[in-house]
Design a protein that fits this description.
Elements lengths: L5 E4 H8 L2 H10 L6 E4 L3 E15 L2 E15 L1 H5 L2 E15 H5 L8 E8 L5 E6 L4 E12 H6 L2 H4 L4 E2 L4 E10 L13 E14 L11 E14 L4 E25 L2 E10 L2 H15 L3 E5 L3 E3 L6 E3 L3 H5 L8 E6 L1 E3 L7 E4 L7 E5 L1 H5 L5 H9 L2 E2 L14 E2 L21 H6 L6 E6 L9 H4 L7
Parallel strand pairs: 9-20, 13-15, 13-16, 13-18, 17-19, 18-21, 22-23
Antiparallel strand pairs: 1-2, 3-4, 3-12, 4-5, 5-6, 5-7, 6-8, 7-8, 8-10, 10-11, 11-12, 13-14, 13-24, 20-21
Length: about 450
């Protein structure tokens, strides 16, 4: 079922709802809003909440905390037919004993986040029962766990600067009790906001490729905040937590004080120039796709050996920090060799276990200011254009648009400062949170045909 769309100028919408003085103020502050934007007749619904999940582990029945964040879409006509489309449904549990799932002791941290994302290969929907006031159904998708990267064969990981994790096919059964029928709220608000209860069951069959020799079942319950937008002034936005990590090292300077006597002075220096260098364009490029990044305070690793990072040290560095609810981005002073991985490498893209390692020399040379934006595109599951994804091993990965910041650039070269509707529609990660916001200008182009070819790598 495809929800109907219509094209309308954003300012037409504002004109209907706002006085002329406010329209003028909006245009002064946001002149780009006068350009035509696509406003969907379909209404957006977002839900967010905490969950309690139960899993049979080595120590018996384990209780795990976690969360759900989802994006649904409907029209008045689809509700009459009992259908609500699922644009995204992210479920994640924290502190999961990895050995309880795989039966194998992990190489790194014993616990990890376990994340579920809905498959985007085919449209998926939930059944809306107006009489019972419920949403229910089965969602096809995949589970990801940090240890799955260890268990992924080198062939399936791929090579280069974007390394894949094999994921576990899974089904999520969900039943959401709405309490009453979905309908436009009374008054001028235009958003139906309510608290709802949900029950979920996540199932996965045995899977040899990931050494899963038994059926996996997880029972999950939650209380969610649901917001259904009945206006034309709002759209869905997403946010993702980023945990920056830097390398700290002591630097000794010797000073001559006379009579042949030298005394040392100690200073502490940090890597991390690439963060402030890359944040502006990461913010502006992904804002076009209604995605924002929430940056935590620095975490610091005091190991000078990581300052100049070789290929053989990448795994050890990644294992140093594991934040279940955030994406780690490691900044080192330089790579050895200098152009290794084009200046940055992402592992387990599109999952809660995604990690980025970036060389500060991207900032030192001051050329590729879309480098961080590009790597975060891999975190958001996008591959280089023309890579041939999704695949059977990585059904969650999707090729990004040509002509955009997802194009490869090599070391010390620019990625295009362009983003696309295709990249926006296919960006995914279990840690993404959804919310409603005022409609704003969108991407620069739609897809490969509209965005042009990727620049040649010098």
């Amino acid at each position: 079922m495809k929800l109907q769309q219509r094209r309308i100028s954003f300012m037409q919408v504002v004109h209907r709802a706002c006085p002329p003085a406010l329209i003028l103020a909006v245009l002064v502050v946001y002149p780009g809003l006068a350009q035509p934007q696509e406003i969907r007749r379909a209404h957006d619904m977002v839900l967010n909440g905490e969950t309690r999940t139960y899993m049979e582990g080595q120590q018996g029945r384990e209780e795990l905390r976690g969360r759900v964040s989802g994006h649904l879409r409907f029209t008045a006509e689809s509700l009459e037919k009992g259908v609500v489309l699922v644009e995204a449904f992210n479920w994640v549990a924290f502190g999961v004993d990895q050995r309880s799932i795989t039966g194998i002791k992990p190489e790194g941290k014993p616990t990890s986040a376990l994340g579920f994302t809905v498959s985007t290969r085919e449209p998926q929907a939930l059944k809306y029962d107006e009489r019972k006031g419920t949403l229910s159904g089965e969602l096809q998708g995949q589970l990801s766990l940090d240890q799955f990267f260890e268990l992924t064969s080198p062939k399936d990981r791929g090579s280069g600067h974007d390394l894949d994790m094999r994921t576990l096919p899974a089904v999520l059964e969900v039943s959401i009790v709405l309490g009453s029928r979905l309908q436009p709220p009374k008054g001028e608000q235009g958003v139906d906001t309510r608290n709802v209860d949900a029950k979920m069951l996540i199932r996965a069959e045995p899977y040899k490729a990931l050494r899963l020799h038994r059926k996996l079942e997880l029972e999950s319950t939650g209380k969610f905040r649901l917001e259904a937008d009945w206006t034309l002034l709002l759209e869905t936005a997403r946010s993702l937590c980023i945990q920056p990590v830097r390398i700290g090292r002591f630097f000794i300077t010797w000073h001559e004080i006379g009579f042949g006597i030298r005394i040392p002075s100690f200073s502490l220096v940090y890597s991390g120039d690439g963060l402030n260098f890359g944040k502006p364009n990461a913010g502006s490029e992904w804002a076009k796709a209604d995605i924002t990044f929430v940056y935590r305070d620095w975490m610091t690793i005091f190991n000078s050996g990581y300052s100049t990072l070789s290929s053989g040290e990448k795994s050890a560095l990644r294992a140093e920090v594991n934040e279940d609810d955030c994406i780690e981005v490691f900044f080192v002073d330089r790579f050895d060799p200098q152009d290794m991985d084009g200046g940055g490498v992402t592992s387990s893209g599109g999952t809660e276990s995604s990690k980025v390692i970036s060389s500060d020399e991207n900032a030192d040379f001051g050329v590729d200011d879309t480098h961080l934006a590009h790597e975060l595109g891999h975190v958001l599951t996008l591959k280089h254009p023309g890579s041939g994804f999704p695949t059977a091993a990585s059904p969650h990965r999707v090729d990004g648009s040509s002509g955009t910041l997802i194009c490869p650039s090599g070391f010390n070269n620019d990625n295009p400062e362009v983003n696309s509707e295709w990249n926006e529609d296919n960006a995914a990660n279990p840690l993404l949170k959804f919310t409603l916001k005022i409609v704003s200008p969108g991407p620069d182009c739609e897809n490969d045909a509209d965005c042009g070819a990727c620049p040649a790598i010098p």
